[in-house]
Design a protein that fits this description.
By secondary structure, this protein is of the alpha/beta class. The chain contains eight helices and seven strands, in the order E-H-E-H-E-H-E-H-E-H-E-H-H-E-H. Strand 2, helix 2 and strand 3 form a beta-alpha-beta unit. The structure holds guanosine-5'-triphosphate and magnesium ion (MG). The site of guanosine-5'-triphosphate has 18 residues, from strand 1, strand 2 and helix 3.
């Protein structure tokens, strides 16, 4: 069983079409789609609930809002031995899913990268800034990955459950940096493949770029300190 986790916040114009695309792309696979909605005011929950397909499950969180906590919520409810996390706005394209699932037979985690040859994104300013930030991340926390913050990956449940979720799942997409830090420390085998960022079809995405940038920078510095302390401790 493959579990696909889709966190949503105001994705009424995207998520229903995305689910249809995923179901069609993976029609030969046994899967469940777990949508975790943070009480979106636009009616995302109602639209997904109206999908009459037992493979599609929707959960609504009302206590707090947050991407990383929603992903955790979905992962904790996932029943598959393969979990895939992706956004629900078409930035992460379903056409890569088959490759990701196939490649997991030789790896613990398969992650999309905009920074391998063949990958990329339309917004050039964001592409360059995220690229610089990824280099900074690599320098500070180690590893040889090219994209630590894209949040589009498939992972074996067996490997995932060895991680301490409390240390990873908080904040926005910075949880991805922490997850990869701990996976690399566990010597998990991570494969990156080149991916083109898809165009958001509807709605407005994350507009708090500056805030998110600082949040990510703080996360990297925290991990660098941890790495330093661990190196000293031997
Ligand atoms: N459950 C939940 N999902 C969220 C939250 N914030 C964002 N998301 C979802 O997480 C994914 C990534 O968020 P986006 O707003 O697209 O961030 P982004 O890709 O950096 O921004 P754009 O490039 O504008 O799309 C989307 O599927 C969102 O719906 C949240 O607080 N809770
Ligand atoms: Mg997006």
């Amino acid at each position: 069983l493959i579990s696909i986790i889709l966190p949503t916040y105001n994705e009424l114009g995207n998520v229903v079409a995305l689910i249809a695309d995923i179901l069609s792309e993976l029609k030969d696979h046994c899967l469940e789609i777990i949508v975790v909605d943070d009480n979106s005011p636009d009616g995302t929950y109602g639209a997904v609930s109206a999908i009459r397909d037992p493979r599609v499950k929707i959960f609504q969180r009302t206590e707090e809002r947050g991407l990383a906590k929603s992903v955790r919520y979905g992962l904790e409810r996932a029943q598959g031995d393969i979990c895939i996390v992706m956004g629900s706005d078409f930035n992460h394209q379903p056409k890569y899913l088959k490759f990701m699932i196939q490649s997991l037979s030789d790896f613990d985690c398969v992650s999309a990268s905009r920074y391998l040859k063949g990958g990329g994104m339309e917004n050039q300013l964001r592409y360059v800034l995220s690229g610089i930030f990824n280099r900074f991340t690599r320098f500070m926390i180690g590893g040889s990955l090219t994209d630590y913050q894209y949040c589009f990956f498939a992972i074996r449940k067996q490997v995932l459950i060895q991680c301490d979720y409390d240390k990873i799942f908080w904040g926005f997409g910075d949880y991805n940096i922490r997850l990869f830090y701990y996976l690399l420390r566990m010597k998990a085998r991570i494969l990156e493949f080149p991916a083109q960022n898809g165009r958001r079809r509807a709605g407005r995405g994350n507009r708090r770029f500056i805030r998110v940038f600082f949040q990510y920078a703080i996360s990297v510095l925290q991990l660098a300190c941890l790495r330093n302390a661990e190196t000293k401790a031997g």
